[in-house]
Amino acid sequence: MDLVSCWGITAGVPNMNSSHYTKTRRLIPETPDDRYAGHLIHPAKPTTVTEGQCIGRENELDLVRIALGLDENWKGSKDRGLYRAGCQRMRLEGPSGRGKRSIVLEVARRTALPLYEMHGHAGMSSEDLVLAIVPRASDDGHEGSHLVIQASPLATALLWGGILYFDAIHRAPVRALTPLASLLGGRMTLYSGLTGLQLTARPDAAPFIFFCSLDSSESYNLPGFIEQRTLPILELEPLRKDNYDNLLGKLSSTHK
User: Could you tell me which of 88, 97, 120 has the C-alpha nearest to residue 220?
Assistant: First the structure.
């Protein structure tokens, strides 16, 4: 039983250029959800995940797979792994260029879950992690626009299921990270002060996985609630010489 079909999730293809999404659930809500006071929330767009290999990181991928409770075929059931209550989370640490994002991309490819990404920066606010009110062109062909509620990548992954990758989380201000306290603390909720909505996963949501990463070559001081709630930690060591030789061989064969 694969990760998606055992949930009875409707198949959809958000990205027509990639086979990664052929097994993922429908992402776009068609009607307002009355659980959110009748407001229609527009989801963020998933990242394009191309077919490929994360060369030289099989040991690290095995550790991730085991942490998620999946078998050697990256499959699980409702009774274990990704289907346990709450979300799965992991923190990736290592200098820039070690392949942290490549590992997350490979996990998304192997689990057939949609991937959403955020990047920490000094100007980030707490609402950047939840909802925004943005103008949107009219769908009926008339001029002008109207305001809609746009979900962040994090809120989208929570509501409809998927993988959220929060890159460079250490660069975000501590105040901006406060919505993660209730999400990663087991309550699995996000509160939007802008709209007054308390977001929880939809009943038919796919599994939710939270990855974050930080550049260990930079100075940082994660707040305690992030430090404690993003375990386990996967530290990425430099690739060995035989891994580089394997990588060069793969690249050479690709370009022939």
Answer: 120
